[in-house]
């Protein structure tokens, strides 16, 4: 007898689930419409947002640092750490430098007055390139011996 009841119970359960699933569409019972506030009616208050100081722990632990700790010097990595000087060409008054991103990518040819990442090339000398940031800080890229 129980073998005959199982298919009937399954059919009744399926029909009940179908009715429950289709009920909102059949009755037109969607979510109630939100009415705009009337003139002079107070608007609902938004939740207060946290202050910037509440995120101090997040900013103290750099996301892309392997240890999630700031650099030992506490100074952000400068342009000297992001680029390496590959070579310098001085021909008469023309001075050019070839720099490459340390992280990889295409090398850049720079001339005096040119810029890289907002830093301006102030001077190209025989062994170094002097760069100036928009804030006025200076940095030098020096020719380095190849790693062996």
Can you name the CATH architecture of the domain at 79-142? Roll
CATH class descriptor of the domain at 79-142: Mainly Beta
Give the amount of beta strand, in percent. 25-35%
Give the overall shape, derived from the CA principal axes: elongated
CATH topology of the domain at 79-142: SH3 type barrels
Order of helices and strands: HHHEEEEEEE
Q: Give a count of the beta strands, DSSP E runs of length 2 or more.
A: 7
Sheet with most strands:
4 strands, antiparallel
Uncertain runs are none
Tell me the helix content: 10-25%
Helical element count? Answer: 3
Indicate the structural class.
alpha+beta
Strand order of the largest sheet: 4-5-6-7
Radius of gyration: 34 Å
Mean pLDDT comes to 82
What does this structure look like?
This protein has 148 residues and is of the alpha+beta class. The radius of gyration is 34 Å and the shape is elongated. The longest helix is centred in the first third of the chain and has 26 residues, at 2-27. The chain has a domain at 79-142: SH3 type barrels (Roll). The strands form two sheets. A four-stranded antiparallel sheet has the order 4-5-6-7, with no helix packed on it. Strand 6 (128-132) and strand 7 (138-142) form a beta hairpin. The chain has helices at residues 2-27, 56-60, 79-82; strands spanning 83-91, 94-101, 108-111, 115-116, 119-124, 128-132, 138-142. It has three helices and seven strands. The chain is 24% helix and 26% strand. The termini are far apart.
């Amino acid at each position: 007898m129980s073998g005959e009841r199982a298919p009937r119970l399954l059919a009744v359960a399926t029909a009940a689930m179908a009715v429950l699933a289709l009920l909102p569409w059949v009755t037109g019972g969607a979510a109630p419409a939100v009415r705009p506030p009337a003139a002079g009616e107070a608007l609902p208050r938004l939740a207060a947002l946290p202050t910037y100081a509440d995120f101090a722990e997040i900013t103290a632990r750099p996301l892309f640092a392997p240890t999630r700790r700031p650099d030992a010097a506490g100074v952000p990595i400068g342009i000297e750490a992001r680029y390496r000087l590959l070579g310098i060409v001085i021909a008469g008054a023309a001075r050019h430098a070839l720099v490459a991103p340390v992280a990889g990518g295409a090398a850049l040819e720079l001339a005096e007055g040119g810029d890289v990442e907002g830093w301006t090339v102030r001077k190209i000398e025989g062994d170094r390139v002097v760069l100036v940031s928009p804030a006025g800080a200076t940095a030098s890229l020096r020719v380095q011996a190849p790693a062996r």
